[in-house]
Amino acid sequence: MEFDLIERVHSHCAHRRGDVALGIGDDAALLDVPAGQQLVACTDTLVAGVHFPDHTAPEDIGWKSLAVNLSDLAAMGAQSAWALLALTLPDADAAFVERFAKGFADLAQAHGVALVGGDTTQGPLSVTVTALGWVPRDLALTRTGARAGDAVFVTGTLGNAAGALRLFLPPQAGTAAIHGKELHGAEGGGGLLRTRLNRPEPRITAGLALRGIASACIDVSDGLLADLGHVCAASKVAAEINADALPISSALAASFDAKTCRELALSGGDDYELCFTAPSARETEVVEKLARTGCGATRIGRVVAGSGVRALDANANEIEIGHVGWEHFS
Amino acid sequence: MEFDLIERVHSHCAHRRGDVALGIGDDAALLDVPAGQQLVACTDTLVAGVHFPDHTAPEDIGWKSLAVNLSDLAAMGAQSAWALLALTLPDADAAFVERFAKGFADLAQAHGVALVGGDTTQGPLSVTVTALGWVPRDLALTRTGARAGDAVFVTGTLGNAAGALRLFLPPQAGTAAIHGKELHGAEGGGGLLRTRLNRPEPRITAGLALRGIASACIDVSDGLLADLGHVCAASKVAAEINADALPISSALAASFDAKTCRELALSGGDDYELCFTAPSARETEVVEKLARTGCGATRIGRVVAGSGVRALDANANEIEIGHVGWEHFS
Fold it and tell me: What pLDDT, on a 0 to 100 scale, did the predictor assign at position B189?
């Protein structure tokens, strides 16, 4: 039965790669990593009611389960190549699997990712994806290279996913366990925000463009302050964010007041934009290069000596944010 | 928090590998696959109450979650190298994590496997491991190479894990959802069987020894008849098993009558022995080589033209087995 379900996902992934010597159907996959490249590997789990609301569309769960992993590859500057899918389902729901497969395959095809292995088990709904890719030796983007004097950038816009949760879910439910049907029942101005929550775009192309330019990089999954904090800790530096420079989508601006938008942009998780540092002198190059990748990049602050991340208003006063990021078991 | 839990598992894995350019602590791991080798990748999930009884010791869950994946690498003839661990826990239970980590690390160290990535999430207990290794190009053992005239072999002994379930769990619970405290409360003659259920030994060394010898290979996770059936289907051949030749441990023989032992050996899952085919003329070479790996190998039948797997008694009459293997959602 294991192969039946995975095969159905696989059948939607029309993309075939010459570097898959043996794909689904044996005990393991056989894969050719190109010469001179380092393998890049990561894994992430989505649990129903924790990482997505219980009534999220199966297509969106499929998409997002792959997206959060491709986003980790993007943050390393890696080229995505292959994925393995471990799907746990309460029962053999063929319609669910078909729809899940469609969403997963849509994103896989967009990035030329081949599904090369998997496992289907019975249990409470959860999805673990392992994403594999590669990067030329010494060109990987890590968290450790930020230096005082570097500029801090972010791709795209921030706070959209958190905005969607706030619009469509009861306020207290956005932090720990998330439930509710509203997310799919309601239409209107929040459509764009909801798309960013359910169908995040992994910034693979941006990550590739940043090879040799960014000094450090991370994807924004827990929230800007939390994730930039990881970069600062790993690089042994501090960062100052100019809150007025934060890129806000017009959809977010149309749904919340300016203060809330800023808060969502600083602490809302699940955006899967890249936050990275680069020498200040290369700002123009960064902005031009990332404009060509489609998502764009905005300079939002600077790296300084010290530790921690501070968000400053126009008067250089620190902004206090209650909820920083999204921590499980916290 | 994600890194805290994974770090605790990692801290137990003292084994460090030179081919891990960047391990846990960034968005993804950077790994060096040796030149001339193909990457081998697989993933498997264990769900509480489905793949192990609810009250299984955390150490055993840790061990087994890695073992079932290393077993898939073994079945490909691969050298194991790295693992990623996605752990879903109902709550941040430090004692559970410590004990889980210990069991996982015990097996990882035994096989020189480095934990290079992971994710911790909140939800019903389940574990997904991705195992990575390599094999020289064209030396992988697959399911497709069995030819009529080949002999069928199995490593070790069969039916032990199923015997443990039958001894320590209510009979009807052994098939679908498995529960019960008995598995750990009871001591006695079943100790060896229980060890085989909770701490299966992935046959990595045997798989390596079979490169260039075995024509097809699979690990026995669903039961001999079911798994050999996968080989036959993939190779477009049939197989005949000589039931009297099935290797039975003395612990199993001491716990059940001969007929039950045979049944458990033919259809019981979770043994994680290797079942493989090889030219009959190489039987002596196979047996000698695998004796040196510690687990040994027994010739149990032959590959013939046709389709399906038949188990024959001493009079060449087919043995009917009710329950073939262990299928989820079946």
Answer: 55
For A134, the closest chain B residue by CA position comes to B30
Structure tokens at A264: 């969502």
Domain B2-136 -> CATH class: alpha beta
Give the helix ranges, DSSP H, for chain A: 2-12, 58-75, 94-110, 160-168, 182-185, 191-198, 204-209, 224-235, 250-255, 258-267, 283-292
Say what the pLDDT of residue B182 is: 39
Mutate to test the interface with B, among A8, A39, A52 (most CBs of B within 10 A): A39
On whether the pTM is more than 0.95, the answer is no
DSSP H or E run through B224: helix B224-235
Q: How many cross-chain Cβ pairs, A to B, lie less than 8 Å apart?
A: 214
Whether ipTM > 0.85 holds is yes
Average pLDDT value for chain B:
90
In CATH, the number for domain B150-312 is 3.90.650.10
Lowest mean pLDDT among A7-11, A112-116, B86-90, B113-117: A7-11
pLDDT digits (tens, 9 = 90+) for B168-194: 876 554 444 444 433 443 445 578 999
From the CA of B228, how many Å to the nearest CA of chain A? Answer: 12
Rounded to 5, what percent of chain B is helix, strand, coil? 35, 25, 35
Per the listing, tokens 């045997």 go with B206
Yes or no: say if B79 and B135 are a contact pair by the CB < 8 Å rule.
yes
Which chain B positions have a beta carbon within 8 Å of A328's beta carbon? 1-2, 120-122
Domain boundaries along the sequence of chain A: 2-136, 150-312
